[in-house]
Amino acid sequence: MIVGTAGHIDHGKTALLQALTGQAGDRRREERERGMTIDLGYLYAALEPDAPLTGFIDVPGHERFTHNMLAGAQGIDLVLLVVAADDGVMPQTLEHLAIVELLGIPRALVAISKCDRVEPSRVLAVREQISALLAPGPYAGAPLIALSSVTGEGVDTLRQALLAAQSEVQQRSLDGGFRLWVDRAFSVAGAGIVVTGTALSGQVAVGDTLLLGPSGKAVRVRGLHAQNQAADTAMAGQRVALNLSADRLALEQIHRGQWLAVEWLYAPTQRLDIDLKLLASESRAFEHFQPVHVHVGTQDVTGRVALLEGASLAPGERMFAQLLLNTPVQVVKGDPLILRDQSAQRTLGGGRVLDPFAPTRHRRSPERLAQLHALNSMLQLEAMLPALLAHSETGLDPQRLERQFNLPRAHWQLPDDMRLIETRKGPVLFNTERWQALQAELLQHLARFHEQEPDQMGPDRDRLRRFAGTALDRATFISLIDELLADAAVLASGPWLHLPAHQVRLSETEEALWQQLQPQFEAAGFDPPWVRDLGHDEALVRALLRKMARLGLLHQVVRDLFYTDAVIRRLAAMLLQLAHDNPVIQVAAFRDALGVGRKRSIQILEYFDRLGLTRRMGDRRQIRTDNALARRTD
């Protein structure tokens, strides 16, 4: 269990931990001289002889060091709120309580300290004051223990309450990838660089490789301590010290606010959607695009808040919002964060991360807000997927979901009505019904194209995508077409796509004109005539030959120069023979075999480059054996 203190300055947090553990806090010379905690302090102690070690994080109470308090409050299991009996509730008591409530720390104990300095009636009054303060929030009914760190009165009672709470702490899930926010970095003689932090998820072992954010530098775990004891592995919920090594790794490169994560989870982001709550104690509404300090993990970054459901947020209210940060962070769904004002003097509110990969467009659309409502539920990933997919036209990226939820795909249990579509860029998750609807819509668009362009065989893939006006990215759209082609619902004639029933035929006039032109093409062999030399109206001839090219009967090598399909295949066979004799095809060798000029030879070779039969390398070519024409030239 990890216990963190909270409370106003000089209310005895450090002294209480010393009475509990027998270990001195405030080990820094400046802290001893000033008599106050400035930075985080760390203690480990067994609350009774056979109990496991409990980690204690002592935080500063002065308002100038609230940023340090925020760094220490992340990831703790229980907050020990300390209120001095002589002072009672003070400003930092209120701010620290608001922070730990916003962070969602599950348990709280309240220590009424310095009871040896006041009368019992004062202790009773402070007890009533604290109970009234806690009543509206999540810590209503939390144990209140009166004690004195000087006399020891009540300290054992607090110890027993901590032991009882320790038995109730639930083991955090180990299914996710390991991640840790760095709160200290130092060098140990003979060992090298050591970083410490609270393990937020997963497990880590000696020999593992992690990425250090935000630089992404790969580091190796040479050794580790878990709960202040040497170990081979550490897991979520433990205080961890990692001895790191890497090429050219220097202590100056590591500081509080950085993070360590396994490679598959590593995904820095600067735009995230959150569920934002403004503290009821605020005197004015929160405005759209207001600048803030954002505290997440041990990191303090600046940015702005875009409100997604209105122009302002009233005190005590909640709203979906998007954070636009000036520095990358590493977060997953559910991570808590705190917002403070631009001058970092006042806590404004906080919330939880819903989507660390927030969209740049349509962020206020009804579909996006519906997704955020689903993400804001306490459901597991599989239970959220139907709602997320129902409001997504383009499917969901499973790798993004893995990182968003910190849950590897191997642990997913997809419902039967969902499927992963394989694309050239990786899989995309779709609702099966939605995928089938997209296929039906595409067939309708293709039928509409045939109605508008009856003389064309059909569009190519990119033209059909533009014609359909789909939001799908190109890779997913190609997979949609490939499935239709595999099912013979769509046919391909060369690059042209068409419905099985669609055929392009020459009109009687066009057929008659081709009968007059065909002998000239057959007689010309490798040197067919240009459009202007065929003896008919150029516009009519050009339109006919282009139509025949779309039918696959002719090939347009350059503008107004067409070859029959049979001749193109003979030319391809010649290239293959030249490549058989010498894999490197020279222009001169092809020109000599063809018996035409160099310029025409280059035009034909460039056409084969475009077809993908050849690959140009300077003034030479090689055959691309993966091309269908290379395997079928008869």
From TrEMBL:
Q: Which ranges carry the Tr-type G domain?
A: 1-170
Q: What is its main location?
A: cytoplasm
Superkingdom of the source?
Bacteria
- Keywords linked to the UniProt accession: Cytoplasm, Elongation factor, GTP-binding, Nucleotide-binding, Protein biosynthesis
PROSITE patterns listed in its UniProt record: G_TR_1, G_TR_2
Q: Which GO terms describe its molecular function?
A: GTP binding; GTPase activity; RNA binding; translation elongation factor activity
Q: Which GO terms describe its cellular component?
A: cytoplasm
Role: Translation factor necessary for the incorporation of selenocysteine into proteins. It probably replaces EF-Tu for the insertion of selenocysteine directed by the UGA codon. SelB binds GTP and GDP.
Keyword presence, Nucleotide-binding: yes
Q: Where in the cell is it found?
A: Cytoplasm
Would you tell me the protein name for this molecule?
Selenocysteine-specific elongation factor
Q: Its Gene Ontology biological processes?
A: selenocysteine incorporation
From which organism does this entry originate? Pseudomonas putida
Q: Which InterPro entries match?
A: Beta-barrel_SelB, EF-Tu_GTPase, EFTu-like_2, Elong_fac_SelB-wing-hlx_typ-2, G_TR_CS, P-loop_NTPase, SelB_WHD4, Small_GTP-bd
